[in-house]
Amino acid sequence: MTEVFVDHKYVGTVKDPQDFIERIRSERRMGKLSTSVNVVFDAQTDAVLVETCQGRVVRPLLVVKEGKLLLTGRHVEQLQKNELSWADLVKQGIIEYVDATEEEGCFIAFYEDQITKDTTHLEIAPMAITGLATSLVPFGQHNHGVRNAQGAKNQKQAVGLYAANFYTRMDVDLSILHYPQRPLVQTIMHELSDFNKHPSGQNVTIAVLSYEGYNMEDAVVINQGSIQRGLGRSAYFKPVATEELRYSGGLIDEVCLPDKETKGYRSEHDYRFLEDDGIIFPEARVREGDVIIGKTSPPRFLSAMDEYNLTSNARRESSVSLKHGEEGIIDFVLLTENEEGNKLVQVRIRDDRMPEIGDKFTSRHGQKGVIGLIVAEEDVPFTASGIRPDLIFGPHGIPSRMTVSHLIEIIGGKTGALSGRFIDSTLFESEKEQDIRAELAHHGFRESGLETMYNAITGEQFLAQIMVGNMYYMRLKHMVANKLHSRARGPIQLLTRQPTEGRAKEGGLRLGEMEKDTFVAHGASLLLKERFDADGTVVPVCEGCGMVATWDYRRNRGSCTMCGDTTEISNVEVSYAFKLMLDEFKALGIYPKLLLESKY
Fold first, then answer.
1. pLDDT digit string (tens) for 107-121?
2. Residues spanned by CATH 2.40.270.10 within the chain?
3. How many angstroms separate the CA atoms of 407 and 358, rounded?
4. pTM, 2 dp
5. Minimum mean pLDDT range among 43-47, 248-252, 418-422
6. Which residue intervals of 382-489 are DSSP H helices?
7. Which of 109, 124, 181, 239 reaches 20 to 30 Å from 380, CA-CA?
8. CB-facing half-sphere around the CA of 10: CA atoms within 13 A
């Protein structure tokens, strides 16, 4: 008898496992069982595994019975006339959903002419083995599988036109590319997914060339003239919001221009952009520290008497201002209400971003890199026909990564630009490389994409032939302007007296165990002292009981609350976090005794 498990729980046994599995599959194809039920026979453990649980990835396949495809030409005609839908094909058992477990026991053909008597399924399209983003990678069959996955991941981070109604939305961390373009080298998925309605990149002229070492480590060199003509330009949008909260006792926040008597009032200069209603006006250019929405709140702590004599000066200032390092132009102001009916003010800030050194760019093949240098147009190498590339890509990223499709796309893009057509680069069904090369040769260029180039600074001809062509490049949302951060002295936390954390709070840069080792190796002991002294403090310690003593600044001497004035008090340099830990020990009833050694 063969054991049967449903979602890894034992439910019983069957005599003939193959017949049992066939019956489940036929019931599923007739629509009597859910399409998400999958079954497989595990020969090693002699068990039938039935899967019905959530969270499994299932994919559709065409059913093949006894070497014959169930989908006929009549079905295709009905589909084209919209007489038949996808759901109908699933109900009729012509298409079924298979998960990873059941797929192990399937024999799937790629193309119809590959069907044999053992075949159980046929791929709807060969590229259906990949996901949506991966099928956008051109000539993916010439790539390593990992590179296709990375190319898919990079495309998700690209700056483009993600939605046509972006102007009326309040999305966080949003960038819009000013001049998006359709790729010259496309797959069928670009059409099926309507990618051309929301493109996320630009067709650039690329040269595979090492430029003065500035494109080592995957960096790219960009032509300044191209940036001035609009290459990679984008707008960054960031929303800022506040609401009028309600407190106990009928007290409420108020969005307004704060009164000078308000507790915590800033300078008049900080409120200079606010109108009478306490909200900033559109198209105002703001920098860090400028108030965007003026707001006052009731005092935090009220005594019994204060509740009756609330005056304006009792309110505290709680305006919203730009954080450290932020700047831009006020793009849009929205006044609305939240679920509780309280006033909600949302302000969107716009910042125009031009590509700068350190901004991230990528092709669709996982070949990502940051800008290493922006070169003046007159210094960019040029071809014999006078073409100057927009982007110079380092050749060292190709051999070890084996992204052959990156090179094929350069040739394809060049051919498409010269022929004035789109190149079909669908996974497994793309145009043949030989045909593209022949078409390129027909236009009077070398079929390999190589051209003679000249050094624009010296005028000398390069000894090597350089690959030049067109390629779809994307600018990623990781921009230097959002990440650049440094700090000298700045704000500290109230509890530990250590520097604050994070870029927005003007936080410190943490020096860890490994960083410490580098300074030890350099012998930079004073730098170490300084780094690890961020919360350094001096505490008086009683040498009698070993507890932290108190210091009387009037008499300029220390005293111990346990031993009195009789014992010797010594000042000891410790970190404030250590002193805090001693206090927490004392709160737990633990006696932390410090044993001091002589300095001499």
1. 999 999 999 999 999
2. 140-232+357-475
3. 24
4. 0.86
5. 248-252
6. 404-419, 433-442, 480-483
7. 181
8. 5
pLDDT confidence of residue 312: 46
CATH of 140-232+357-475, one of 2.40.270.10, 3.90.180.10, 3.40.720.10, 1.10.720.60: 2.40.270.10
Known catalytic residue at 171: no
Residue 144 token pair? 């390593």
Residue 231, Cβ neighbours under 10 Å: how many? 22
* 2-124 CATH: 3.90.1070.20
Q: Which residues fall within 8 angstroms of residue 68, CB to CB, at 6 or more apart?
A: 115
Q: Dihedral (C-alpha) 72, 74, 76, 78: value to the nearest 10 degrees?
A: -150
Task: Name the CATH superfamily, with its identifier, for domain 235-353.
Answer: RNA polymerase II, Rpb2 subunit, wall domain (2.40.50.150)
3-class SS letters over 19-74: HHHHHHHHHHHCCCCCCCCEEEEECCCCEEEEECCCCCCEEEEEEEECCEECCCHH
CATH classification number, 536-587, choose in 3.20.20.80, 3.90.1800.10, 1.10.3470.10, 3.40.50.2300 = 3.90.1800.10
| Beta carbons of 365 and 408 less than 8 angstroms apart | no
3-state secondary structure of 152: helix
Is 374 in a helix, a strand, or coil?
A: strand
Q: How far apart are CA 200 and CA 155, in angstroms?
A: 8
Contacts of 470 (CB under 8 A, 6+ apart): 184, 203, 204, 205, 206, 410, 413, 414, 416, 417
